Amino acid sequence: MTWHRKDYREDRFRDGLILALVHSGVCVCAQAESGEYLFVANMHKSWQFNQDTDPVDTEIFGEDLGQRLKLAKRRVLESKKTEEFEIHIANDGFFQIVIDLVGGAYGEPLILTMIKDISEERHREQVLKNLLRELSHRSKNLLAIVLSLASQTARGQSDLASFLKIFRGRIFSLSASQDLVTDMSWSGAGFHDLVENQVKKYFPDDITRVKVKGDDPVLTPNAATHVGLALHELIVNLASRDAQNGGAVSAVIDCWVLPNEEGVDETHITWRESANSGALQPEFTNVFSEPMLQRIIPASVSGSAEIDMDGDTVSYSLVFPSAENRFN
């Protein structure tokens, strides 16, 4: 919509409108019906011409685009209808071109060509498409993990109440890991944050019951999900054993990124659980924990794992390629 006072001469707006046009960043070219250029403002760096001579379409825009514009302007003159199209210039981006017809000061038609750089808009659209595609992919992966957890959890339980208790805990673990991944724009989750998120659910008053040492790599979304599940199984078992022994059990987690024999970096996560003398012998309270820790989780991160129960100590080690993480 446009508006101006009826008793105010339009030509008085000219300087102000030209200034506004220059600041808008939109390129505007005005041509006579003959094709003669009368005015050019904000020409993009992709197209330059000798300002000491009268420009022509093919000189400014090159042969291909120049001829396309010339034909489009001819159609606008004949049909009196606006033409609009989009072009892509390699290394320079996307541009929207609108060609319209307006009356001149003495009634002769003026051809206006407006060129707008829409590269940022197209970039945002592409980013959104990629995010939606990634969201769909990860949603499918999560559903597959949930179905696997449900199936494996059900195998070790004899009643619905036991199943629901354990299954809900594992779903919480997934949810907590996903929250961290989302907070980092889906790039992953910091290992120390992952541990803290899992520990505080079962030791809300003393998260130092599980101490973390070493490196703090940012795990990929896949690694964060499965390492989070491993931590959940270990921490749940620790909490159960701690309750049985009157608060006498604690654990230390070490995380180091080290090169293997071939010089390829690997992430080493080690859990060492210990108890005061006289504590009950360690055992996994859930039959699913051991296969989960020894087979399912290592396979999901292309790694390997070992569990060792010796006396009052529980040790668990997980090693996987550092392609599954990146440092802050």
UniProtKB/TrEMBL annotation:
Catalytic activity: ATP + protein L-histidine = ADP + protein N-phospho-L-histidine
Signal transduction histidine kinase HWE region domain residues: 134-216
GO MF term list: ATP binding; protein histidine kinase activity
Keywords: ATP-binding, Kinase, Nucleotide-binding, Phosphoprotein, Transferase
Top-tier EC class: transferase
InterPro entries (UniProt xref): Sig_transdc_His_kinase_HWE
Top-level division of the source organism's lineage: Bacteria
Entry EC number(s): 2.7.13.3
One Pfam family matching this protein: HWE_HK
Descriptive protein name: histidine kinase
Organism listed in the record: Ahrensia marina
